[in-house]
Write a structure and sequence with these properties.
This protein has 433 residues and is α/β, with parallel strands linked by helices. It is built from 20 helices and 13 strands.
Length: 433
């Protein structure tokens, strides 16, 4: 299959900003920080080592993690040296949730997820050149410590009164579930990570989500107490939609970076459906488009919203960043073909099946009538409604209008699939068993 020629923005920082910090602020990536003036000077000076941690509490990262990874990449493009930390030890504990205790996963499961998360992080940072990224695992320095040594060397520097004031802790203390000592101790473990990375690599900056601010500052405080040195942290804002819904959720499921958990087609459609009120801010956070380019898309949203130019560019950029340009080109071709702007028969079987799996669909035996297929896929609620739809001329199979009650679904597309359409927008997939 020949995929359409596409290109994405080069990964580089925008030279129109005086400093990297100014660009981070403009993109809305700074919600809370230590000394802002010092951070501006730090990031504009000689290369530093910085880190962000990712806990293996699931087999994949999600869009919230992508915010952190792209922020790390922007710092790396400015010449700074990233450490990608996968929490082999903190993943065994889990940071406190707002309302309930986490379920502890088996050690073997966490170890497997560590490997998967490392692979995803490695795709989004550069491991070449003078400021090549380095992967680290906090299990390497946590596991050798005995409980006594940990309490004597690290725990003695934490004050319980300060720990109780952390938002993540206070929220749980005020909930019916309370909080276990295990999750209460999480901030000590994360603070220990920062101290160890400071000692091993000279790390002086940690980034993370603003909801992790209490954990981030546990590290800055610990290093100040133990080493007498001021280090830094900044937290990105939690991204929410203008309509009040939670960003990154689709019918209750997170948008994962793993293609097996969220297909490239599903990810592309997620971004394509971004609300006009949100799309400009998403372009700032999730793409490397310049300020001038984003300003132009903002104008297009205002003047020609029906073209959805900003959403198409956003979907292209982010899907290509996560899944690669070739996979993105295929899902764009599939998306266009499904909605009547391309040849369904030209799609490869895997891409077509993945796309149809995101629609209402059914697996049916060979020779199934179009009427039964309409009912089984949920495009109509009854056989009589299916017959009415056929008489009205509003049904097609694989792009061909169907009017006969005797018509069959043949699965004539690659992979023995067919596309049912009722009206202009109601689509469903059929897989022939």
């Amino acid at each position: 299959m020949t995929t359409p020629a596409l290109s994405v923005a080069p990964q580089q920082n925008d030279p129109s900003f005086d400093t990297l910090w100014d660009e981070l602020v403009w993109r809305g990536l700074v919600h809370v920080s230590t000394d802002e003036t010092a951070l501006r000077e730090l990031l504009d000076g000689d290369p530093i080592v910085y880190y962000c941690g990712f806990d293996p509490t699931a087999p994949s990262l999600h869009l919230g993690n992508l915010v952190q990874l792209l922020t790390m990449r922007r710092l790396q493009l400015a010449g700074h040296r990233p450490l990608g930390l996968v929490g082999g030890s903190t993943g065994l504990v889990g940071d406190p949730r707002p309302t309930a205790e986490r379920t502890l996963n088996a050690r073997e499961t966490v170890a497997e997820w560590v490997t998967k998360l490392r692979a995803q992080i490695e795709k989004l940072l550069s491991f070449e050149g003078d400021n090549a990224a380095r992967m680290v695992n906090n299990l390497d320095w946590t596991a050798p410590l005995s409980a006594i040594d940990f309490l004597r060397e690290i725990g003695k520097h934490f004050r319980v009164g300060t720990m109780l004031k952390k938002d993540s802790v206070s929220a749980r203390l005020n909930s019916d579930a309370g909080i276990s000592y295990t999750e209460f101790s999480y901030q000590v473990l994360q603070g220990f990570d920062y101290l160890e990375l400071f000692r091993q690599y000279g790390c002086v900056l940690q980034t993370g989500g603003s909801d992790q601010w209490g954990n981030l500052t546990s590290g800055t405080d610990l290093i100040r107490h133990v080493e007498g040195v001021s280090v830094h942290a900044f937290g990105t804002p939690l991204i929410t939609n203008s309509d009040g819904t939670k960003f990154g959720k689709s019918e209750g499921n997170a948008i994962w970076l793993d293609a097996d958990m969220c297909s490239p087609y599903a990810m592309y459609q997620f971004w394509l459906n971004t609300d006009d009120r949100d799309v400009v801010e998403r372009l700032k956070v999730f793409t490397f488009l310049t300020r001038d380019e984003i300003d132009e898309y903002e104008r297009l949203v205002a003047d020609e919203p029906f073209r959805r130019a900003a959403q198409k560019r956003l979907a292209l950029e982010v899907t290509a960043t996560v899944h690669g340009l070739d996979a993105t080109a295929k899902v764009i071709q599939a998306s266009e073909a499904l909605f009547g702007k391309g040849d369904l028969g030209a799609l490869d079987a895997d891409t077509l099946r993945t796309a149809l799996a995101e629609l209402p669909h059914a697996t049916l035996p060979e020779g199934t009538s179009v009427i039964d297929a309409l009912v089984e896929t949920g495009l109509v609620s009854s056989v009589s409604e299916a017959r009415r739809a056929l008489k009205q001329g509003g049904v097609s199979v694989d792009g061909e209008k169907i009017t006969s009650d005797d018509a069959r679904v043949e699965g004539a597309l690659p992979g023995r699939a067919s596309v049912l359409r009722r009206g202009k927008k109601a689509l469903a997939g059929v897989f022939i068993a």
